[in-house]
Amino acid sequence: MATKNLSDRPVLRVEGLCVSYGKVEALTDASITVGEGQIVTVIGPNGAGKTTMLSAIMGLLPSRGRIEFDSVAMVAPEVETMVASGMNLVPEKRELFGEMSVEDNLVLGAFQRYRMGLRDHAQTMEEIFALFPRLRERRTQMAGTLSGGERQMLAVGRALMAKPKLLMLDEPSLGLAPLITREIFRIVTQLRSRGVSILLVEQNARAALQVADYAYVLETGGIAMEGPASELAGDRRVIDAYLGVGGKHQEMLAT
Amino acid sequence: MDFQIALILGQDGITNGAIYALLALALVLVFAVTRVIFIPQGEFVAYGALTLAMIGNGVFPATAWLLLGAGVAVAALDGLGALRAGQARKLPSVFAVNIGYPLAVLALLRLLPLTELGLAVQILLTMLVVVPLGPMMYRIVFQPIAEATVLVLLIVSVASHVAMVGLGLLFFGAEGYRTPPLSDASFEVGPLTVSGQTIWVIAASVVLIVALALFFGRTIYGKALRATAINRNGARLMGIPPALAGKLTFLLAALIGVLSGVLISPITTIYYDSGFLIGLKGFVAAIIGGLASYPLAAFGAVLVGLLESFSSFWASAYKEVLVFTLIIPVLVWRSLTSHHVEEEE
């Protein structure tokens, strides 16, 4: 299935991606495209294969299919090369370095750039602190002592230290209070205006569809629907399955 | 036992303890980053000491051949890997580093008048020969099975230890060697005579521990190693390759091992298989620190050193037994006081 997201400059093009855990196929023939400066969201229920898809694109899991990033075909993607070429994943579990300070966590986000000889992490860190003033207050604190929302901010900030072209966020709202979720989504929108393309995987479909430009619905390991986010948000099947009716309260929180 | 004997034993214990502390730190580091219980740590001590002894005697150290052999193996592995990934342009640098470097060291050892060099240059040469064996060993032995269980890694670790002891016998023979002390000075402190070597050992250990603390606290590569130890997946996502972390860790472990060998060989006669016991004592200290805490491991090392020197006075036949028996109460105490905590989230 070829994707219909016709962006003039795709950052990421995935075609016919298949991932199996042993004999069980978790993802079948998934094709998605993320255009430059776009927010693209993948929504779907638990166990649909959303995290699997991100892990495969990042090279954490072996996969079959074609992954083209920044117009370069990635043969057997490896995490290290993906990070070096400008892709970054904020995983669902955050994977922070709990016994290290906020500042050290951020510095390590720039490790790959540092290794390539780009020693501008002090300046990038100032930009991150401007985006997340809370992190500046907590800069010497151990990452493990942060609250859930601060952790998510740190995880996003750490990924941004690598100055990625494409940022992949796995369930950024998971386990966060609604107000903090709103804050995170506000920042996601802000990032787009800075030219970072974003691939957002969410269970909170309402909030995701509001910020995204284009959306895919992933069900039991395959892409079931796709379309511009605003169209999908008005689609009967999406409303019934993922948005529910009369969610005034949800709507308010998501803005 | 009078006070003076106690002082002498205490001095001995602290001197040995300082060396065990270095080894314990290396063991904790290797385990934290790679999950390998690094049994061959002691062999790096023996290889370091004996290579220095050979160079001191003007004999070409056979460990240089091992360096060349390991270099060729690494070049073959990395070369094949580069070819498979379609990166043939990496081949020249792979060969230059892994084969060119050992050849350069070999040439140095052949051309230099080994016996006429100062002790400092001889030590430097020893390090050039033995330290790179650490990362090479990681590349050849542990990198292909980096995802294996701790038990498999331990078994392979024991196997590498046995292989290295065997090679040690081949390289150095069954005879033991001592190297000249780093300093012949001695000082009278009250009733106690403190030798220059003792001061060297303690000072070098302290300097090395401080240097390691700075490396881990201040440099981005040190932080990357810590990060790998804390959260392997998180580190991978930052583009910190586990293989790089592994090689860097083994480099540090080998460096610590060789320096310990250089420090201990003027105090004790070192045989091809002496490394194992020395390494094991570092291991006891590391266990006291739960294979996780650096300060506790260093404290444990001094404890092991003192216990060893006092038990060699009272019951010299049982001194090793007493030191290793220390593990049992420590394990009992640790199992009673610590409880396993699941990773949160």
Automatic annotation (TrEMBL), chain A:
PROSITE patterns: ABC_TRANSPORTER_1, ABC_TRANSPORTER_2. InterPro entries: AAA+_ATPase, ABC_transporter-like_ATP-bd, ABC_transporter-like_CS, BCAA_Transport_ATP-bd_LivF, P-loop_NTPase. Keywords: Amino-acid transport, ATP-binding, Cell membrane, Membrane, Nucleotide-binding, Transport. CDD domains: ABC_TM1139_LivF_branched. Transmembrane segments: none annotated. The keyword Cell membrane applies. One of its GO terms (molecular function) is ATP binding. Residues 12-245 form the ABC transporter domain. GO terms for biological process: L-amino acid transport. Belongs to the ABC transporter superfamily. PANTHER family: ABC TRANSPORTER ATP-BINDING PROTEIN, HIGH-AFFINITY BRANCHED-CHAIN AMINO ACID TRANSPORT ATP-BINDING PROTEIN LIVF. This is ABC transporter. It comes from Thauera aminoaromatica S2. The lineage of its organism: Bacteria, Pseudomonadati, Pseudomonadota, Betaproteobacteria, Rhodocyclales.
From TrEMBL, chain B:
It is a multi-pass membrane protein. GO terms for cellular component: plasma membrane. InterPro entries: ABC_transp_permease, BCAA_transport_permease. GO terms for biological process: amino acid transport. Its main location: membrane. GO terms for molecular function: transmembrane transporter activity. It is found in: Cell membrane. It comes from the Bacteria. Belongs to the binding-protein-dependent transport system permease family. LivHM subfamily. This is Inner-membrane translocator. It comes from Thauera aminoaromatica S2.
